[in-house]
Amino acid sequence: MAHDRALDLVVFGATGFTGKLAAEYLAARKDASLRWAIAGRSKAKLEEVKRALVAIDPACSAVEVIEARSDDPSSLAAMTAKARVVLTTVGPYAEHGEPLVEACVKTETDYVDITGEPAFVDRMLARWHVRAEAARIRVVSCCGFDSIPHDLGAYYTVRKLPSDRPITVEGFVRARGGMSGGTWHSAIGAFSNLAELRKKKPKVELQSRKVGGLRSGVHYERRLGAWAAPLPTIDPQVVLRSARALAEYGPDFKYGHFAQIKSALTVVGGAVGIGALLVLAQIPPAKALLLKVKKQGEGPSEEERKKGWFQVTFLGRAGDVEVKTRVSGGEPGYSETAKMVSESALCLAFDRDGLPKRYGVITTAMAMGEKLQERLEKAGMKFETL
Ligand SMILES: NC(=O)c1ccc[n+]([C@@H]2O[C@H](COP(=O)([O-])OP(=O)(O)OC[C@H]3O[C@@H](n4cnc5c(N)ncnc54)[C@H](OP(=O)(O)O)[C@@H]3O)[C@@H](O)[C@H]2O)c1
User: Fold this and answer.
1) pLDDT tens, residue by residue, 33-48
2) What is the number of domains present in the chain?
């Protein structure tokens, strides 16, 4: 496998908004022993990013620049063959993502991304899991705010509960942050593809335990003193996938995923807004107009990101044992996402001897679990039992 490659990791998409933040995060660690590269489709833009990295740490003059395009398989294979791990922020993933997964499987290279697009993850699972498992590589999607706090948070919570009886966990998300053009384009793309969204999820590892979503509508959650509205993100799908594979989730596991909201009015406003976007994204001219609202490559300013934060509170129960836990951190969508995906890539590159021997298209809890949690805690994210 990929132990002795010229590079520890490559950031593919380093010229984009989130990719540049990930590259800056890695540069700011000032680890002269890290052998890494930035990659993308424009050499000139990559050189500009490299100058910014050198300004953070002069040792970044050794960072390699690799030209590669998602529509040029040979450029992807040449890139993935050089590295232990590829970190990609090239999205929308449903559009650009699969050729890189294919290249990683063929060159036996570990992979992390920050997608939040369910259709893409389902497709990679259906098409590449078996071959990735046979190649003994880890293809780990959703290594950003989608879905690390929720996946590792649920995993942290179940480990506080006995695993010999049915377990229920509910996650309640509160966050403040902006949105980049890349995220906006990916979200509109996902909304416009209702048929793929509605498809039944592929289930790869069926163990002896029962796993399912908790059916619950908008409700007042007296244990938190707030309203809770079901959050239709990729996160519950990721949590349930981990639960299907790992014994810590008990014989019968249920998960509910909610936005924690102060007032009932906000719940109504949010539902109307999402409903309107879903409808508009089905109509091609309206979709084209929506895409113009935010330009790819742009995102919230450093000042805005400094004001951002997130908090996910988990209420867990196994029989009469209850636990309340929390995962929290800074601005979720970009600053913390850059941190989370970078630490995931570093974890795969450097902690591999201590990682579970699980391979294929797998989740963060399955691939890295406690090792990644430790890294994220060292990097300032909090995992607490309240
Ligand atoms: N899960 C989460 O929490 C989370 C958080 C943030 C972002 N995201 C997702 O991450 C993705 C990136 O977001 P962003 O805001 O960083 O987007 P962005 O600024 O638009 O960056 C996209 C990057 O992809 C590159 N790219 C596009 N097409 C390419 C191709 N054919 N070959 C090679 N590179 C190509 C772009 O290169 P150029 O510079 O040459 O155009 C750019 O580097 C989106 O899908 C977004 O939804 C997820």
Assistant:
1) 999 999 999 999 999 9
2) 2
